[in-house]
């Protein structure tokens, strides 16, 4: 009986791995009837939570600024989806730029739910139905990464947002990975720290999905819709550890490239400690951030 149980467990692991590989190749992930039931229940709970908190948010805004309800919704949404967030360290509450690694769209819900931070996001997000509206509720700063001539205006808007929001988070990898890799950090948005606003600190954040990282990661050719469907239909819960690492003053480090390098060094050290080994090279090409996966020993390249 024990051998049969181990064989069944191995088969499930193999099937789960194959589903992840197929998703990264752009193939749709099959969802079982019970999976669709889980997805529907989670969507219903998210809608009910939104229906309760949005009116409270707008009512609060009539009498005060800085509504707590977007943060409450994001924290509740994280739990409804099945994420159990464990905070390690202490997030700064104001005058802070969080710099984090990026694995999933769940990162945004988890960090904002734990710290109340706003985010920098691509301008395309603002035009996405429902998601764009939710992002604006959380005071997201939208930027056009391809509009290099407008970078000065975007940095000025970011400076104002940092002063207004007290905390902003950025994912300088520019894309999501598998949780076992760490891409080079892009530094264009860190120009807001040249020179840094008075009193602003930089706090690196390491998102650790543990053994679930590869299953949760949104990588390769997988569509956003398929990734959302996979996560909302999965069974059980999993732990996401948010490591708020020691903050540092950008004044003591130097320009934006030195700031990015220091934040990446600290996040990489935390990732190494979690994996028990150095991060591996990311195996997927990411054209928008001009990343080309290294050629493997068998001659294969990125997806």
Task: Give structural notes.
The chain has one domain: Glycerol-3-phosphate (1)-acyltransferase (3-Layer(aba) Sandwich). The protein contains ten helices and seven strands. Helix 2 packs across helix 9. The protein is globular. The termini are far apart.
Please name the defining characteristics of this protein:
303 residues, alpha/beta, Glycerol-3-phosphate (1)-acyltransferase, 7 strands, 13% strand
Largest sheet: 7 strands, mixed
Largest sheet, spatial ordering of strands: 1-7-6-2-5-3-4
Strand content: 5-15%
Unreliable residue stretches: none
Instruction: Give the overall shape, derived from the CA principal axes.
Output: globular
Distance between the termini: 41 Å
SSE order, as H and E?
A: HHHEEHEHHEHEEHHEH
CATH architect. name: 3-Layer(aba) Sandwich
Briefly note the CATH topology name: Glycerol-3-phosphate (1)-acyltransferase
Helical content (DSSP H or I, runs of 4+): 40-55%
The number of strands is 7
The whole-angstrom Rg is 20 Å
Q: What is the helix tally? A: 10
Number of domains: 1
Helix and strand content put the structural class at: alpha/beta
* Averaged pLDDT: 85
**Which CATH class is shown?**
Alpha Beta
């Amino acid at each position: 009986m024990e051998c049969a149980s181990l064989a069944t467990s191995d088969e499930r692991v193999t099937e789960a791995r194959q589903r992840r590989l197929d998703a990264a190749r752009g193939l749709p992930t099959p969802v079982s009837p019970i999976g669709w039931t889980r997805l529907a229940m989670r969507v219903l709970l998210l809608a009910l939570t939104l229906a309760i908190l949005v009116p409270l948010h707008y009512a609060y805004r009539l009498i005060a600024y800085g509504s707590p309800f977007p943060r409450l919704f994001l924290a509740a949404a994280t739990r409804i989806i099945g994420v159990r967030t464990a905070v390690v360290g202490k997030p700064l509450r104001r005058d802070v730029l969080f710099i984090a690694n990026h694995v999933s769209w769940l990162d945004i819900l988890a960090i904002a739910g734990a710290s109340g931070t706003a985010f920098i996001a691509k301008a395309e997000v603002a035009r996405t139905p429902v998601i764009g509206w939710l992002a604006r509720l959380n005071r997201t700063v939208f930027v056009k990464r391809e509009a290099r001539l407008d970078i000065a205006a975007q940095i000025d808007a970011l400076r104002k947002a940092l002063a207004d929001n007290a905390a902003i988070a950025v994912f300088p990898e520019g894309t999501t990975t598998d949780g076992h890799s760490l891409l080079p950090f892009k530094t264009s948005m860190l120009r807001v720290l040249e020179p840094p606003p008075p009193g602003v600190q930089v706090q690196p954040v390491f998102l650790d999905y543990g053994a679930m990282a590869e299953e949760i990661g949104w990588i390769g050719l997988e569509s956003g819709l398929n990734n959302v469907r996979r996560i909302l239909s999965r069974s059980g819960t999993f732990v996401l550890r948010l490591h708020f690492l020691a903050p540092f003053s950008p004044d003591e480090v130097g320009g934006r490239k030195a700031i990015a390098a220091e934040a990446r060094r600290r996040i990489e050290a935390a990732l190494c400690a979690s994996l028990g080994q150095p991060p591996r090279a990311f195996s997927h090409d990411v054209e928008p951030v001009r990343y080309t996966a290294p050629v493997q020993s068998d001659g294969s390249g990125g997806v």
